[in-house]
Amino acid sequence: MQTTLMIYDGTASADSDVPRTGGVPLAPAGFTWPMCGCFCGGPLQFFAHLPVEDGVLSVFLCQNDPGACEFWDESSGANRVYLFPREGLQPVAVPETGVTLLPTTSAIRTQVVTVDPEDDDHDDDDELVPDAYDLARSGWKREPEERFGKQREVLGSLGGSPSYLEDDRLPACPSCAGTMEFAAHLEEGISWQTAMNLGGQLGYVFVCRACREGAFLTD
């Protein structure tokens, strides 16, 4: 069972075209900073720049008044996911007001991890059997005789399937009404200085590649 983990890899330049959380978004010319469509109406906070095979996923959530705007709900208007083409991207002008940027830009490197489910020590009577992402994250860099790995280094994963998310929560594309494809998990971060505020939850990024639109939700 293989999972492509996203691993914290130090800091990065704020406008670098590398996998990262934080910094400033790179977008096509003419793109304007997205605003919250839930309650506050303020600018969204930029969370992640994720180059993928067919472009760049750009993730924004509302953090102007955490808990007031429903950033965890894909249909609330308090988050946005874009799939931009890879060419012609440029830094976007940052609004002067609102909570728009993370304190630190964190570089990401990818690491393919192979896990054998038979090696997991879960109780056979448990209702939930750990899935590929859960196993890969919990076992990341675990040493012999060590009870815990270094899960905080894991900033999420690319591709695969959404960990423990029920089928009835898979979002539909607002343009074509088709079920969106799972694209990435996002974790809060390695420390409070770099963390994204996800309310302690795991984030899920979805995309409709045909319409180049995305969605975000948490568990």
What does the model show?
The chain is mainly β and 219 residues long. The protein has a single domain (2-218), classed as Hypothetical protein YwqG fold. It is 3% helix and 32% strand. The chain contains 1 helix and 12 strands; from the N terminus they run E-E-E-E-E-E-E-E-H-E-E-E-E. It has one helix at 132-138, and strands at residues 2-11, 20-21, 26-27, 45-52, 55-61, 79-84, 90-91, 106-114, 154-158, 181-186, 203-208, 213-218. The protein has a 10-stranded antiparallel beta sheet with strand order 6-5-4-2-8-1-9-10-11-12. A two-stranded antiparallel ribbon has the order 3-7. The longest helix is centred in the middle third of the chain and has 7 residues, at 132-138. The model has no long low-confidence stretch (mean pLDDT 90).
Count of DSSP H/I helices? 1
Write down the Rg: 17 Å
The CATH topology corresponds to Hypothetical protein YwqG fold
Mean pLDDT: 90
CATH uppermost class: Mainly Beta
CATH architecture: Roll
Strand line-up across the major sheet:
6-5-4-2-8-1-9-10-11-12
Rounded to the nearest angstrom, the distance between the terminal CA atoms is 23 Å
Strand content: 25-35%
According to DSSP, the number of beta strands is 12
The shape, in one word, is globular
Structural class: mainly beta
Number of domains: 1
Helix content: under 10%
Low-confidence stretches: none
Organism: Streptomyces virginiae (Streptomyces cinnamonensis)
InterPro entries: YwqG-like_sf
Protein name: YwqG family protein
